[in-house]
From TrEMBL, chain A:
Coiled coil: none annotated. Keywords: Signal, Transferase. GO terms for biological process: glutathione metabolic process. This is glutathione transferase. It catalyses: RX + glutathione = an S-substituted glutathione + a halide anion + H(+). Its EC number is 2.5.1.18. It holds the Pfam family GST_C. Residues 1-21 form the signal peptide.
From TrEMBL, chain B:
One of its GO terms (cellular component) is cytosol. This is Glutathione S-transferase. It is found in: Cytoplasm, Cytosol. Keywords: Cytoplasm, Detoxification, Transferase. GO terms for molecular function: glutathione transferase activity. Is involved in the conjugation of reduced glutathione to a wide number of exogenous and endogenous hydrophobic electrophiles. One of its GO terms (biological process) is glutathione metabolic process. It comes from the Eukaryota.
Length: 224, 225
């Protein structure tokens, strides 16, 4: 039994970040799948503040919040390559900045564009594109945000690689177009196919069903 | 000890912002001299727009011409660059994770719950007070576990989580003094009540968090008095 356990759900994009970090670094771990509609007493005990996945359990000690877990993994298994963060403090700050930017701006705006319709959707898309431009610029001359190998910011943006096409299929709208974001689309493809990462994607048809149902529910709840 | 000249390190900010306070406290801990460029409330300088085009917000640290934004990211940068100074984050990875977790909690949950509490009225105010109190109880627990009987979350010296939370509670104790609420309660959160006084009295913090009277002045203005 591995000394590392990861609490996840089959689809959680945040938990997937941790799967990727552990896989890419070759760290042995056990997966514990949670059903968020029926949370285990273990999850509630290990993450009493948020009661969410992911939770990493290392030698019996729990760590929550994906960014915190990623930094912990990086600092604990120091001999395991690749490093997720560069050595230079300024480059590290930049990696952390882009990762935070992704969760603060890109994720909520793409989500808005996915669950809304009409004018609301248009506005969310415009805002998403405004912000995605920064990412497009950041990718110039790089295969990954981390350079030659995936790094901290690649893992936190990884959800773009599979979920954007799922959202596009379900909502019937182009969220990221080829003309405006060629580097981003190339990055998404590279990340999708990256070693260790490519085996971890949740089944696409299951994701389509999940997000279709979720979108329908949310749209039905919208005030007319 | 920093060899760089004062002009090498600039902080773009405004003194009342708790996020800006974090950065200045961190620089003080490392005895780094810096130029404090104060933004005028209600307008954004060219330098701010250039150095933080993504968020256009303070604080921004400009070091050797390079800009870093987001206060907790800046604090970690300061810790890593001026590594010969007193450490801000603890050395053990698990302790670091705990401090990062609670610092993120302050930003994601606690600080938002504090918003507009001093100008809220009636039922809305009561709801806000309950939320903030719940948060303080959680932070009190975290304090007891982290400090292990010492003065700060970081132990004998102020550290990352002290810096993250300190300016917020520095403001909160002024809100309490305005009357009408008692958020920092000696019964419910005795550790934090003592901690905020120790924090505000610390050498690295004094001068960054003004006296409670000055904070009250600003709060009164916000209330429209």
């Amino acid at each position: 039994m591995a000394e590392v356990k990861l609490f996840r759900t089959w689809s959680s994009t945040f938990a997937l970040r941790i799967v990727w970090a552990l896989e890419v670094k070759g760290i042995e771990y056990d997966m514990i799948y949670e059903d968020l509609s029926n949370k285990s007493s273990m999850l509630l005990q290990y993450n009493p503040v948020y009661k969410k996945v992911p939770v990493l359990l290392h030698k019996g000690k729990p760590i929550s919040e994906s960014f915190v877990i990623l930094e912990y993994i990086e600092e604990t298994w120091t001999s395991k390559t690749p490093s997720l963060l560069p050595g230079d403090p300024y480059q590290r700050a930049m990696a952390r900045f882009w990762a935070k930017f992704g969760d603060d701006k890109i994720l909520p705006l793409i989500w808005e564009a996915f669950i809304k319709q009409g004018k609301d959707q248009e506005e969310a898309l415009i805002a998403a594109h405004e912000n995605l431009k920064y990412l497009e610029v950041e990718l110039r001359g790089k295969k990954f945000l981390g350079g030659e190998t995936v790094g901290f910011a690649d893992l936190t943006f990884g959800w773009l690689a599979n979920l954007v096409s799922v959202f596009e299929e379900v909502a019937g709208v182009t969220l990221i177009d080829h003309e405006k974001f060629p580097l981003l689309l190339t990055w998404m493809k590279n990340f999708m196919d990256a070693p260790k990462i490519r085996e971890t994607w949740p089944p696409r048809d299951k994701l389509i069903n999940k997000y279709r149902a979720l979108r329908e529910t949310l749209i039905a709840k919208e005030p007319k | 000890m920093a060899n760089s000249s004062c002009s090498d390190v600039k902080v773009l900010g405004a003194w009342p912002s708790p996020f800006v306070m974090r950065v200045r406290i961190a620089l003080n801990i490392k005895s780094v001299k810096y130029e404090f460029l104060e933004e005028t409330i209600g307008s954004k300088s060219q330098l701010l727009l250039q150095s933080n085009p993504v968020y256009k917000k303070i604080p921004v640290l400009i070091h050797g011409g390079k800009s870093i934004s987001e206060s907790l990211i800046i604090v970690q940068y300061i810790d890593e660059v001026w590594s010969s100074g007193p450490s801000i984050l603890p050395s053990d990875p698990y302790d670091r994770a705990i401090e990062r977790f609670w610092a993120a909690y302050v930003d994601d949950k606690f600080f938002p719950s504090m918003q507009l509490i001093n100008t809220a009225q009636g039922e809305e105010k009561a709801a806000k007070v309950e939320q903030v109190t719940e948060g303080l109880v959680l932070l009190e627990e975290a304090f007891q576990k982290s400090s292990k009987g010492k003065a700060f979350f970081g132990g004998d010296r102020i550290g990352f989580l002290d810096i993250a939370l300190g300016p917020m509670l520095g403001w909160l104790r002024a809100i309490d003094k305005m009357g009408g609420v008692k958020l920092l309660d000696e019964v419910k959160t005795p550790g934090l009540v003592q901690w905020v006084e120790s924090f505000c009295a610390d050498g690295a913090v004094k001068g960054v968090i003004p006296d409670i009277e000055k904070l009250l002045e600003i709060l009164e203005k916000m209330k429209g008095n």
